[in-house]
Amino acid sequence: MTRIKICGITNLKDALLASDSGADAIGFIFAESPRKIKPELARKIISSLPPFLVKVGVFVDEKIDMVRTVYSYCGLSFVQLHGDEDQNYINALSLPVIKAFKVKDRQILNHISEYRGNYFLLDAFDENHAGGTGKNFDWSISRKAKKFGKVILSGGLNQKNVKLALEKVRPYAVDVCSGVEASPGKKDPKKIRRFINEVREWDYLTN
Predict the structure, then answer these.
(1) How far, in Å, are 82, 130, 197 from residue 92 at the CA level?
(2) Do residues 115 and 148 make contact, with C-beta atoms less than 8 angstroms apart?
(3) What is the pLDDT of residues 48-76, one digit of tens each?
(4) How far apart are CA 53 and CA 181, in angstroms?
(5) Does residue 74 have an active-site annotation?
(6) Pick the CATH number of 3-206 from 3.40.630.10, 3.30.1360.40, 3.20.20.70, 3.10.490.10
């Protein structure tokens, strides 16, 4: 089954909606973003969620001690790094990591090959934003990246194109943020349910 992550959660209602609709993971953004959340609120939300739902904290070039503190305080399952964090940073962090890479062209494969983790997320390149842009990129690059580990496909996914993305890439997981929103930081229940249903229907028909 394809894992599904709903990112950019800012409130308990949306977190429970994602969980109840069948998401495997949800993401909380602790970096500058319209969807940024304070650790105190994230901790409160997480305390009300099912125990087997994966909780991911998104950081961008944050100090290692701060990442560790937020991870422990909030009860996160993974940290997702969207900045220029290198392997030395990841080694020093010593936490479960998803490393994000912004895909501009095939040269990104050289950078991914230097990363020694099991999970990495591929998102669209944008000079001004670390993620959540709603942009697509060349999915054929994602297929080639699979030889380095488990690919989490992100970048411009929504209920209309996720089946095509799954067919072309067959990733370990898909990650959606703006594609299931009513507005930045507020999810649309119909879009979330439709997105998850599209993924599960594809899983059913191809497995």
Answers:
(1) 16, 22, 39
(2) yes
(3) 999 999 999 999 999 999 999 999 999 99
(4) 20
(5) no
(6) 3.20.20.70
Out of 14, 24, 123, 175, pick the active-site residue: 123
**DSSP H/E element including 136:** none
State pTM to two decimals: 0.92
Which token pair is 200?
């599960």
The residues facing 200 across adjacent strands are none
Annotated catalytic residue 177: no
Please report which confidence band the pLDDT of residue 207 belongs to, taking 50, 70 and 90 as the band edges: confident
Q: What is the spatial distance between Cα 197 and Cα 199, in angstroms, rounded to a whole number?
A: 5
Cα 56 to its chain centre, rounded Å, is: 8
- Residue range 109-124: mean pLDDT, rounded: 90
The one catalytic residue in 7, 24, 175, 177 is: 7
